[in-house]
Every structure is written in structure tokens, then in C-alpha cells.
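Technical note accompanying the year-one report. For the benefit of new consortium partners, we illustrate the data format agreed upon in the data management plan: each record pairs a sequence with a C-alpha cell string. No post-processing was applied to the example shown here.
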Amino acid sequence: MPAQSYVRWFSDIRLSDVPEVGGKTASLGELYAMLATEGVRVPEGFALTAQAYRDALAAAGVEDELRQILTGFDHHDVVLLAERAAAARQLVYEATGTPHLRAEIAAAYRALERKCGAGVAVAVRSSATAEDLPTASFAGQHESFLNVRGLPALLRLDLHRPGHRLSHR
């Protein structure tokens, strides 16, 4: 993976960043920029970019395998669907659990601690850049973790996956 930053702070995110961080995160960034100057408190936080996900899959060489897992089967077969989803999830977790991404999360969380206090409790939500479209909804397909406190807990929960956003509560 390239040695680039995949972390984007809410203060640097705008609605034009939807392809990079997803709609809900871009909205948080926009709110942060617009409301903070008006005295409205919007939680400090950051997101991992979609590019982190794409680069991790490419570096691990698992894109074709992932595509094979997710195509060519009866999606009405709930048991097979669950098996394929679990296999895909494991493949993505292994590909994205890189030292580079973990180090970026650690550095960003430490910066958040400097702003908000040591061991700051955070909310972490998985996301996607196209999770709520006019023609499709992925409601309930992403995870949220509340009151995650401290870097060891953050990394232990495997929350370092691209697409997650982390915000101080």
C-alpha cells in the first residue's frame, strides 16, 4: 500500500467528498464546518477513505477472489448467502488489517485524545460511499460501536476497517 494518509478529519470534509468518504460522513464534515463557527457543537472525528479499502484489496491481490465469492449464486438461498458474506467479510478483514492502516488509526486517535482528553470514548460506524441511494438502501447492513474507549479497545475490535468513521461523543 502506498505511504499516503487515508485519514480525513471532519473539519476537512465537505459534501463534494461523498465519493471519498460517503454521504453521511460528508454531511458530518459539512455540519462541522458550518455549525462550529455558530457555536453549535459537532463532535470532532475522522474517517478512513474508500481509497484505503481499494488500495488494501489491490495490495492483497484479493479483488478477483472477492468478486468470485459475491457473484454467480442464487441470492435467494439465505444459507449460501450467509456463507458467502462471511467468506467475503473475512477476506476483506484480512486484506485491510494492515500495519499501515492500523498505524494511521492509532495516530489519528492519539490526535483526537490530544483534542478531547486521554481515553476519549468514541462512536465508530462502518459505512460505504453509496449506502443510501435513491434506488437502493443498505439500512442495517453496517455496524456501529458506541463508547469505545482507548486505542487498545479500538484496535482490538477490528474497527480499523476502511469506511469506518470515528467521532468523539
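Partners are asked to follow this layout when depositing records. The longest strand covers residues 144-149.
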